[in-house]
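Tutorial, part two.
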Amino acid sequence: MTKMYFAENPDAEHDIHELNVQLLGQNMTFLTDAGVFSKKMIDYGSQTLLKCLDFHKQESVLDVGCGYGTLGLTLVKAKEVKATLVDINQRALDLARQNANRNQVLATIFQSNIYQNVEGRFHHIISNPPIRAGKQIVHEVIAGSHAHLLDGGDLTIVIQKNRERQVQKLRWKKYLEIAKF
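Running the prediction step on this input gives:
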């Protein structure tokens, strides 16, 4: 079986696509490939997530499971945030770096299995987690966020449940325990 997009080194044969889209009022160009999530279009969940975010210039954003960079790079261009993009997938990270150059934005982009290689704290953490990888991955994105958020920071994720996309925004307060949902 072919390794999925949440694998470190997907083995799918390359199938490069170029997407020219408008997101948050910005013209964006993305190279995509087989072995990454949503290679032929910007998925509905990512589009919905972007529309729900109210970030301010120079705030720090961590994009967990960034794929080819749709969320983080769009936010850099549209909102002038400081973005860090991480993913386990090397192919996706290579594309994210190329897409940062194509869209003339600066972002920190590196490999990390969720928060494994992430240091520091952020104003915001965003994610369109790989649902096909299983609930445990989604729970790790949620549970691990607290250690990487500044006081008053938030985690915003989009998940598919019962064939509908839902955006969940969690504001972490001191001593808040993670609710199971």
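The radius of gyration is 15 Å. In part three we will examine how such features are distributed along the chain.
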